[in-house]
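Minutes, project huddle
Topic: does the predicted pose make sense with S-adenosylmethionine bound?
PN asked that the exact inputs be recorded in the minutes so nobody has to dig through chat later. Recorded below.
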Amino acid sequence: MRFLDIGSGLGGLLMFVGRERPNVTVEGIESAPLPFAMAWLRLKLTAGPNVRALYGDFWGHDLSDYDVVYAFLSPAPMAALFEKVKKEMKPGSMFISNSFAVPEVAPDEIIKVDDKRKTQLLIWRF
Ligand SMILES: C[S@@+](CC[C@H](N)C(=O)[O-])C[C@H]1O[C@@H](n2cnc3c(N)ncnc32)[C@H](O)[C@@H]1O
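Predicted holo structure (tokens), as shared on screen:
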């Protein structure tokens, strides 16, 4: 199974998922140089071999090989991102958006997380 965090920031989610799911290949892609560098170092020092940080722009990254793609971005890219996700992701895969909806496309499932932010995970299955 392959998991991708698009916009992986400092790599906190990658560390968590990688630790909880050692049999899953966990990747993150980040375009901001400093957070990427910090995540890369952090993962190199503390994460298992199943976790990897990639440097780049997710708009140019092929999503067809992932079983789960996760995003925690902003409202602005969600419509265009969903078009990319729909075009590239394979049957049986899922897209998870932390907090941000896709205009006019209801998610298949919403998970309410019991945290301080009252986070909602919006899930689309393909
Ligand atoms: C709110 S942070 C999310 C960090 C992490 N995924 C999490 O859930 O804790 C969003 C990140 O997306 C990155 N980002 C935004 N647009 C991007 C793009 N086109 N390609 C790669 N990373 C991008 C930002 O630099 C930022 O680090």
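Observations noted during the meeting:
- The domain at 66-126 is CATH 3.40.50.150 (Rossmann fold).
- The first strand starts at residue 2 and ends at 6.
No decisions taken; revisit at the next huddle.
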